[in-house]
Amino acid sequence: QKILVLNGPNLNLLGTREPGVYGTKSLADIEADLRARFDGRAAIDFRQTNREGQLVDWIQEAGLSDVPVALNAGAYTHTSIAIRDAIAGAKAIVVEVHLSNIHAREDFRHRSFIAGVCRGVVAGFGPLSYALAVEALLVD
Ligand code: DQA
Fold this sequence. Notes:
Elements (H helix, E strand, L loop, with lengths): L1 E6 L11 H4 L4 H11 L5 E6 L3 H14 L3 E4 L8 H10 L3 E5 L21 E4 L4 H12 L1
Parallel strand pairs: 1-2, 1-3, 3-4, 4-5
Helix pairs in contact: 3-4
Bound molecules: 1,3,4-trihydroxy-5-OXO-cyclohexanecarboxylic acid (DQA).
């Protein structure tokens, strides 16, 4: 089973970016842990971009090829109608992922534009959030 894991803006800086909030693992560490955990169970295609339109393109691609998506859209979660529309329009199956518990943080992080078109949301478990999202997509 192929699974697409998409990461949005600033997640390339994980490890050094606000480690008190996001932990000390790099995005490459998170990718390696996921690959090890799902070895033999899922073919993980792991990507990161700082560009909103690139996320839209990848979500459209996932919808067309029927590949489920674990998506950490970073700050675009709280701003992007374009990403919401891509998920809804492409009929992509998406689980929203966050390392941090966005509901325990600033008010502006409490609203997600994409949650309403996602299958579910996993937030607050650090790198484990990604693994829980992939588990959910495999059951699905
Ligand atoms: C994040 C939470 C967002 O609010 C923030 O903008 C991020 C990371 C998380 O994984 O906790 O960039 O998506």
